[in-house]
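Hi everyone, sorry if this is the wrong subforum. Our group has a chain we'd like a structural model of before ordering constructs, and none of us has done structure prediction before. Sequence below.
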Amino acid sequence: KPYENFGGEVTYSAGSYGLNRISADVNAPLNQQKNVLFRLNTAYNYQNYFQNNGYDHGVVIDPSLLYKVNDRLSVQADAELSFSKNTGKPIFFFYVPVSTLGYNNADQLKIDYRQTYASSDLTQRSQSQNFYGQVNYKISDKWTSQTNISANYSFSDGYYPYFYLFANDSLSRNDQSTGNSKEHLLDIQQNFNGDFKIGGMRNRFVGGLDFFHINSNQYFFGSSWDMVPEQGRASYDDFNKAGLSAKYAAGQIDFTYPIIFKSTTLSAYALDVLNITDRLSVLASLRVDNYHNYDNVDPSSKALTDPYRQTALSPKFGIVYQPVKGHVALFANYQNGFVNNQGTDYSGKTFKPEQANQLESGVKLDAF
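Answer:
Right subforum, don't worry. Here is the predicted structure as tokens:
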């Protein structure tokens, strides 16, 4: 977070496998009153893998701005910006039961762990851009307001090789690519916090509203390439960008998987902790969510599916009693949670959210 004095550092690191990293952390007040503060963290990193092919190349830029308007109001804005290009690190799956491979431990496999089994030009580009804003306002000695805004943009495009292990010390080479996949998230939250007394009993309250929107336009596809021995070949670079690009251009795609949808969730919630005595406190909470899913694409048929809405209530209750104040506490609570479910039943009715309920009780001791 930004602070009121000028300062910072610049560091450079170098190491084996081509490691080069430079980073900077710079902080500065932007005016004489020192109520507008700025800080920047940024880094560039390049490193090869320990294997014969592969690298990871990235940049991060993280600025932060704090504006203390007055004793009651402050505004903070932050960003996390990440850009990378890399080759996928090899992942091996079992295509057949492990028992048919004739081995009992992973170190018995004939895999050459310094071999990527693919060309270094099978790369993927990705971005992640996160933006945060927070406004804190002191309404009174008993009430505060907090407004939070967060937005995310993510992007990926390129190849990602993966492998299946077969008997006879052979493996299949495959690819899962992502084609200009994008996802946008937006969340806006307004909270009101209170710490006040009613009839001599202390209340600690939070209530608020939440708006959450997802716009997903992600497209995954891929294909098998060939079967090769795990050892014995001088080069495996024939599994490369030119070959895969030609294969996909010819329409030789084994699978596609779009994740394309839009959804919006509107929520309202309230929670209060009431101190009935200095030994006894109770909690009650209720949250209501209205979930709207629309513009869905079915992964198998590629057709738009029917939109649907789901509304769920989620309560929470708790009690704490201290027979020995500050040392022994008896507690019990009930919580409810839910997950929205896509789809409809046999009669076309939208599924209800999946519910989970939890009951808990116990004793907490603080001996010293």
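For your construct planning: The mean pLDDT is 92. Residues 186 and 326 are 42 Å apart (CA to CA).
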